[in-house]
Amino acid sequence: MINTSYKVNCDTLETESNKTIENGTLHVYDNRLKVHLNNEIKEVGLAEVNAWGRYDDTQYTSASSFAFTTAEFTLPNNAGNVVSNTEFPFYNGTKLLSENTNDVYIITIAFKAKINNANGHFELYLQGGNGTPYDRVKDIVIFPKGNNVEHSYAKTFQFYADEDVITNGLSIKATASDNGEIYDVIYFIQRTNKG
Q1: Alpha carbon distance 91, 95 (integer Å)
Q2: Residue 48 carries which DSSP code?
Q3: Domain-located, residue 109
Q4: Same-domain check for residues 151 and 100
Q5: d(CA 157, CA 138)
Q6: Of 21, 24, 53, 108, which sits 20 to 30 A from 123 (CA to CA)?
Q7: Is residue 30 part of a domain?
Q8: Phi-psi region of 131 (alpha: psi -120 to 50; beta: other; left: phi over 0)
């Protein structure tokens, strides 16, 4: 018979150091995860895995919006206001960033927008720097309320980080059917898996 689970009750690292722990066990204490493999110990902060950041654009508001045309454009967000529980920036005012290959993220992109044609739309998508098809992660934003009428949106995407994202980052792009305006852009990014 082989044990498939071990439980060690320790409150802190100091009390744990007095215990003998079997190879292959996982142990949580003081919001830390300790993994015992082949007599080596790896420690990961749980908060590092479940990290998040909110990045608000402070340049374009309803009083001074960003005008877009039918040409591809990057959503404006200067990260002028940041609230985060991690030191690593998931967005630097230009690109989405990842700390590790194989990290997994959820991003909610909130914004207000108007378009000149009530039947208009734009496609919102992610774009990598080296040919990785992140642009397949997209959604169509429609404007049903009328010409030049403000709409509020919150679009959510999931994505992972490959070497391209580590090297080049990701941009958030849009292509519109008609001219319009966008403002009050916010990115809320949560890391759900750490490489």
Answers
A1: 6
A2: H
A3: yes
A4: yes
A5: 8
A6: 53
A7: yes
A8: left
The structure's pTM equals: 0.76
Please tell me the total count of domains within the chain. Answer: 2
- The shares of helix, strand and coil residues in the chain, as percent rounded to the nearest 5, are 10, 45, 45
Domain contains 4: no
- The reported pLDDT for the residue numbered 129 is 76
Residue 13 has pLDDT above 70, yes or no: no
- Is the separation of the CB atoms in 161 and 89 below 8 Å? no
Domain that holds residue 23: 13-47
Residues 6+ apart with CB under 8 A from 2: none
**Residue 61 DSSP code:** B
CA separation, residue 47 to residues 55, 104, 169, 190 (Å) = 19, 15, 23, 11
Residue type, 43: E
Record the tokens describing residue 167, joined without a space.
Answer: 């090297």
Residues 43 and 58 grouped into a single domain? no
